[in-house]
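Journal club prep — side note

Before the paper discussion, L.F. wants everyone to see what a predicted structure for a comparable chain looks like in token form. Sequence:
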Amino acid sequence: MKRDSTAQSKPEHIGSVLPRVLREFRPPREGDLGQIEGVWKTIVGTAVAENARPYAVKGGVVLVHVSSSVWIHHLRFLRQDIVDKINNAIGTALVEELKFKIGPLE
């Protein structure tokens, strides 16, 4: 009996598969978070965007998932500048504060 070559691929841990699957099937975010995501890379630049992403918004506070504590430390110095640039880009004072947390960069 012949085996399909795809059946011989290495197994992957669910922790590495799930974020990829959710990214593919999750509808685009709308509302406040969608607006922030739309301007994020332009405001923070490529290097920061690869290591920090807005994750949630509640009451003017944006939770940003960051890849490491080093990036959290770096971004704390840029916090107010990022807030000002986001609000200017979207045309309203939506963001009051950024909070950073190590988390998945979906």
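L.F.'s comment for the group: The chain has a mean pLDDT of 85. Keep this in mind when we get to the figures.
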